[in-house]
């Protein structure tokens, strides 16, 4: 299976401890602050583009006997850095 968020990043990471998500968002905000005097993009959302490029926009997840093959603590994160807003996702299942 290939999950391709349309115009939106996604990540596979630990999903058991909510502090992981908080820590990741904190660090991304430190590296890519929302405002920076050298940003030139006119819409004012340069940080969201930088974060999306860093995280990536697709994930490949294997399916075995109908179940996603993830680590014990893993989950799939759909990351919204420029919202909230409605998003569409494209999921393609590629058979063996």
Provide structural commentary.
With 96 residues, the chain is of the alpha+beta class. The chain has one domain: YjbQ-like (Jelly Rolls, Sandwich), CATH 2.60.120. The protein is 25% helix and 25% strand. The strands form 3 sheets. A 3-stranded antiparallel β-sheet has the order 3-1-7, with no helix packed on it. A two-stranded antiparallel ribbon has the order 2-6. The protein has a two-stranded antiparallel sheet with strand order 4-5. Strand 4 and strand 5 form a beta hairpin. The longest helix is centred in the N-terminal third of the chain and has 14 residues. The radius of gyration is 15 Å and the shape is globular.
Topology:
Blueprint: E1 2-5, E2 10-14, H1 18-31, H2 46-55, E3 59-60, E4 63-64, E5 67-68, E6 74-78, E7 89-92
Antiparallel strand pairs: 1-3, 1-7, 2-6, 4-5
* Backbone shape: globular
CATH level-two architecture: Sandwich
| Total domains | 1
Report the strand count.
Answer: 7
The CATH homologous superfamily is called YjbQ-like
Radius of gyration of CA atoms, rounded to a whole number: 15 Å
